[in-house]
Amino acid sequence: MRLCRLAVRGFRNLADLDRELPAAGVALLGANAQGKTSLLEAVYYPVLFRSFRGAPDQEVARFGGPGFRVEVQLEGGAVQELGATWTAVGRRKRVVVDGREPGRVAEAVGGWLAVSFLPDDVGLATGAAAERRGYLDRLLSLTDRRYLSALARYRAALAQRNSALRQGRPDLAQAFDAPLATAGAEIVGKRTAWAAHAADRFAAELECLGERAGTRLRYRGGEGLAERSAWDPALRAALPRDRARGTTTIGPHRDDLVLEVGGKALREFGSNGQQRGAAVALKLIELAGLRDARGTEPALLLDDVFAAFDRERQRRLAHRLLDTPERQVFLTAPRPDELPPGLVLPVWRVEAGKVIP
């Protein structure tokens, strides 16, 4: 699956554009704050119909404008066209797939597949557990529609249960225990199975990037909560604590993906190079997971990634990311000398929001 056309209007600081895109992808050069990352953000937007920076849609729209529109044409997949329009009046988002509007935005998710590498992705190794949970939710939602459905049901039940707890209504809160438990067990089970499968690959990817110390990936969650039968006694036991805190204190919304190096927490004891390598390894696993589950090669979006590594790690990383001829690649760099060695891609410049082939 390849992106063959991108049309953007009212999107951040980008000038409106409508361009055909090279089959291999493109290298985007330009100084900071010129719009390179915004262009990558627009390319990624139709994957999940939200910003890869985590920004709400009102921040994605050009300041003072009426809203934004992103439209892409694809080839090589089941979907040929995706579009999203967000209007400031009413803050309404409309999504279109091949000329038809689905009942829910979630039904359109994954029609276009891409994996982004951003400088802030080191937070997968150094940041709070919420970043790693977000990684799991994104990857598993794009590879498994049932996971996406369970996640939506869990979040809805969790929000209602927490609202009841804050109101001092434990009886009402318990009314949401059953849907919370059913969806939660499915989420924990799928996350646990994914982690068990990904552990060896995580270690192998880090070794390919030059990391020789022993590395480990594992899922840490509530004891036994992958089984539906474990939830009822766990929720009963936690209820006094939940009432005191006004929030649900057990479940996958509190779990973590634990990364270790040399038997110690990578987040606390890993070097800068090890932490960045771990984040890259997780992204490579995401890339492979999407490809294996969906039977197509996702596009790769690289935002000034290579500058953070020494030359040897740059060489290894470029080999892992760029030596796949069928993979479409979009990458950014401030200057030509910061592009990875041996890169063969058309070069476009981005200046003051304008894209110049």
How would you describe this protein?
The chain has 357 residues and is α/β, with parallel strands linked by helices. The protein folds into two domains: 1-113 and 296-357, P-loop containing nucleotide triphosphate hydrolases (Rossmann fold), CATH 3.40.50; 125-293, RecF/RecN/SMC, N-terminal domain (Glutathione S-transferase Yfyf (Class Pi), Chain A, domain 2). It is built from eleven helices and 14 strands. It has helices spanning 36-48, 57-60, 123-126, 129-143, 145-166, 170-174, 177-208, 231-245, 266-269, 272-294, 311-322, and strands at 2-9, 17-20, 25-29, 67-75, 81-87, 92-97, 114-117, 215-220, 256-261, 264-265, 299-303, 329-333, 347-351, 354-356. A six-stranded mixed beta sheet has the order 7-11-12-3-13-14, with helices on both faces. The protein has a five-stranded antiparallel beta sheet with strand order 2-1-4-5-6. The protein is globular and about 60 Å long. It starts with a strand and ends with a strand. The mean pLDDT is 92.
